[in-house]
Amino acid sequence: MFLLSEGGASIPVVDPLGADGVFSLLWLVIALPLAGATILLLGGRRTDAWGHWLGTLTAVGSFVLSLVLFVSMLGREEGQRQVVQHLYDWIRVGDLTVSIDLLLDPLSVLFLLLITGVGSLIHVYSIGYMEHDPRRRRFFAYLNLFVAAMLMLVLSENYLGLFLGWEGVGLASYLLIGFWQHKPSAAAAAKKAFVVNRVGDIGLSLGIALFFVTFGSTSFTVISANASGASDGVLTALGLLLLLAACGKSAQVPLQSWLLDAMEGPTPVSALIHAATMVTAGVYLVVRSNFVFELAPHAQTAVVVVATVTLLWGAVIGCAKDDIKKALAGSTMSQIGYMMLAAGLGVYGYAFAIFHLITHGFFKANMFLGAGSVMHGMNDDVDMRRYGALRKAMPVTFLTFAMGYLAIIGFPGFSGFWSKDKIIETALIESPVAGIGALIGAGVTGFYMTRLMLMTFFGEKRWKDDVHPHESPSVMTGPLVVLAALSVLGGLLYLGHWIVDWLSPVVGTAPKHEPPVPAIVITLLVLAVVAAGVATAWLLVGKRPVPVTAPQDVSFATRAARADLYGDTINETLVINPGRHATAGLTRGDRSLVDGLFTGSAGVTAALGAQLRKVQNGFVRSYALSVVGGVVLVLAALLVVNL
Amino acid sequence: MGEFTQPLMEYGSIWPLFVVFGVACLGVLAEAFLPRGRRHVVQLVLAVAGLLAALVGTVLVGMDLEVTEGGAARGLFGAAGAVAVDGPTVFLWGMLLVFALTGVALFAERRLESGVSAFAGQAAALPGTEAERRTQALDHTEVYPLLMFAVTGMMLFPAAADLLTLFVALEVLSLPLYLLAGLARRRRLLSQEAALKYFLLGAFSSGFFLYGVALVYGFAGSMSFAAIDEAVRNDTENRGLLLVGIGMLMVGLLFKVGAVPFQAWTPDVYQGAPTAVTAFMAAGTKIAAFGAILRLLYVAFGAERWSWQPMLWVVAILTMLVGAVLAIVQTDVKRMLAYSAIAHTGFLLTGVLGVQGASALAEGQVTSLQSVLFYLLTYSFATVGAFAVVTLVRDSSGEASAMERWAGLGARSPLVAGAFAFFLLSMAGIPLTAGFTGKWAVFTVALAAGAWPVVLVAIAASVVSVFFYIRLIRVMYFAVPEGEVASVTTPSPLTTAVIVVGVVGTLALGVVPGPVLDLAADAGQFIR
């Protein structure tokens, strides 16, 4: 069964088979890390000694199982690759049923591999990275919890289960950003991420409610089969609500501000949650909801606009940051912008969005872990101005990082080259303005990544004498090597259009649009722009000495980029300050009208008590007055509508 | 003079009510005739046995309910038409009796205050006087009969099928609560003040309620809900009388549930009353009063719902917003829970206003009645459990309800703090807790009835409410303790059992809500 969109593309309806054979083990993929988290959290200190091994083992077990599932799915015919496993009925009243169902299809199986694969590597890496942390066991419990929630998110067959995972990853992210809670900055960052994400969650909650009202269900199967029956207005509203949700989770403008601060968390967390997996959940949501977006062109346009703005916004921020992790975070924002752009292009771009999501998962996790390895050797300093010439001190880290670098700027043959090039090409054909934005973004990417590379590994040594940079232990470099290899080879997924064909039962097939100029011309154009960006960085950073303290007499553009393009200031002026005043006003009202001295009266002496009693008479009177006011209100509300 | 006919009582169906009432009276006798030393045990046994017997009775009555002539509902009228025993009544009675049992368990807790209960030795002794010091070691065992009288009123309240019975039930449930609120052993002034305020404002709002009774009688010429319904459907004269009457009646009922703008008493009373009493009345009053609101609005004024729904929209929106926003600025755990209770009243009202005509409902769709019944249950589990935890967290001056004292509790007492965090998460409506299922039920019901503005506000209020719940969890787990901190006193098995019941109920209703939702659906409709 297919839905038809306006452009003539056919969108497959979700229509899964029951799970049998090896697929009936699907639940175990989630259950393993969940069990790990439960044991580690409830077991307390008794599990300190072996907690990190258990945590890693469950993640690896989940990965092995995912591989088995993937291979068995490869062995099936195309029409039989959607499998649903019914776990149990969560809520059932009469005809209405909300069940916990898991859906494994070509889309979710890729996510399974990415989450458990990169997740396992990062678990292994963390064994070394968190070795001296007294709360390492708790860290692994949270990581396991995250993996379980993320798997729930991508495996659920309905929006309610997806929401469960969505909130779960939010919780895990909150706990992990604030893991070093003794640092006020980490606690504040955790809170900020939580608050901003809640704004996005409003979108998802309302969207789910609207699904319920419109379709009487939240199941993908039901909604995709009936989507064409809904009115345009409802579909557009649904698309915009889902976009709001995606903006919050994937740090898209205007809800982008939390991601940079989230770098306060331990670096493996930044690699797993804030680069490879959780922040891409928004892209997943859009691609998964293709049956909504394909029928809501206005919502798609909104996705494209948000994505284009974000990919430039993030890239500009990445240019000015001296904190290596924040520079990478800006880059993450920008790269997710690319994915969202592809997802916003609809059926032409879904497969490329997922393709870039996967290659980005490889090379960005690689670079974050590389950054962690650098910090490990540099006494946890994150300021690139105090790095320099580290390539000799950390050869493995340098080489693996370089692979990630070449991948992200799109050096021919590396994974990022294939995935980003396809997005820019598709964008130029389908939406030229966004395409030009993406093209410029590619140049800026070349600039900021080269700058980061040069400041960290090349040039003069700028670190102090008491710092002794050294290579990290092999438990940390091992995952780096694996991820570096994946960063190089990720492009193989596109060999013979494999990933596009693989995903077509889920995201549909696009009618062929010939580009206005041959594809090779576009590729050469992209390469020229990237080369220009790299050359600029070489001229501005590589050829000159890097000052150890950041110069202050810089242009307005640099100052703006350093201040995250004033994202926080905008939030503060438009949201936080008015909110604060409103709360303060309400508090004052509460104090004078309701609270009064009442809260203070505990333990008041008899003399004071006498005074207080006089005031209290007044209070009951004012309470009674509010009751009278209420009577007037209730009567007015009754009479106004009736008379 | 008409011939006197003996009213048909239907004892077979209303006897659980009489059991509770009878035990309450027995309790008064025991108080009068038994020596002081033996009263506690006897009262406790009486109360528990009475409540258990009534609970068993309720289940038996519930299984025996017969379908009425109309066929839509099961049940019958007792006490000459003054009391309706039907599916919803039985469901509400069951809830009330369960939470009354948890209330008794909390009342009987004597380990926390080193051997005495949480109630004042002698309520009449002036605080700070010699008389108070002399009575320190005594126990107020009158609290058990008082509780039983309150339970009687609470059971009668949602079952009342005419306005006078409704008023009598309102007073029977309220008067013991006014007294109980003033009996705290510690912080006597605060407690007495709370009781007096509660009494004054309660009396004030009862006045409005009674005036409403008179007006509606003037309109319909009868006190019985069925006759009022008849009049509402047929009479077009004097609609002013009816509307003002509905308004006045609602003032009295909305006061009891603590809806804005009648919420002023709630924080003071929740904070001042002994925490065991707060737990009992937070759950019990809300269950009883919402039961009464539902029956009055759906049965007596059901045909008039276009008139009262907009009014409830306004009240529900105000209640959710004021409750959620003011809870943010609280620094006292009990006060915060009070404001959270106000917000929950708003959510419940959202369910109440989601009523639709029977024809507008799809087969098997959750009705507003079911959703409210279910929400009451989820809310009560979390609330009773949360207040039970509050009784345990103490410092040198008794219960430590100031929030900063709770800093770092998660590290000192992981189990208790974990249970409390779980209750808070349920109140916040996080998935896989009872609260989520409850919120989901009332929101969908209101949405289906077209009240989307209210649902929008409700979702916004839920989001806001997550902040203050999580903030308290953060204080417990992540804040660095400064100054004197509270610690958890080991309670007797009674309080532990209450907390366990709360946790199990909250978890079960979140993970497998099906059976209970089915039970609520099984309760069917009110008989008319």
TrEMBL record, chain A:
Keywords: Membrane, Transmembrane, Transmembrane helix. Residues 156-441 form the NADH:quinone oxidoreductase/Mrp antiporter transmembrane domain. It holds the Pfam family Proton_antipo_M. It is found in: Endomembrane system; Membrane. It is a multi-pass membrane protein. NCBIfam families: NDH_I_L, PRK06590.1. This is NADH-quinone oxidoreductase subunit L. The lineage of its organism: Bacteria, Bacillati, Actinomycetota, Actinomycetes, Propionibacteriales. The gene is nuoL.
Automatic annotation (TrEMBL), chain B:
It catalyses: a quinone + NADH + 5 H(+)(in) = a quinol + NAD(+) + 4 H(+)(out). GO terms for molecular function: NADH dehydrogenase (quinone) (non-electrogenic) activity. Its EC number is 7.1.1.-. The chain crosses the membrane at residues 14-34, 41-61, 90-108, 143-160, 166-184, 196-220, 240-265, 277-298, 310-329, 336-360, 372-393, 414-434, 440-470. It is found in: Cell membrane; Endomembrane system; Membrane. Residues 160-463 form the NADH:quinone oxidoreductase/Mrp antiporter transmembrane domain. NDH-1 shuttles electrons from NADH, via FMN and iron-sulfur (Fe-S) centers, to quinones in the respiratory chain. The immediate electron acceptor for the enzyme in this species is believed to be a menaquinone. Couples the redox reaction to proton translocation (for every two electrons transferred, four hydrogen ions are translocated across the cytoplasmic membrane), and thus conserves the redox energy in a proton gradient. This is NADH-quinone oxidoreductase subunit N. It comes from Nocardioides cremeus. The gene is nuoN.
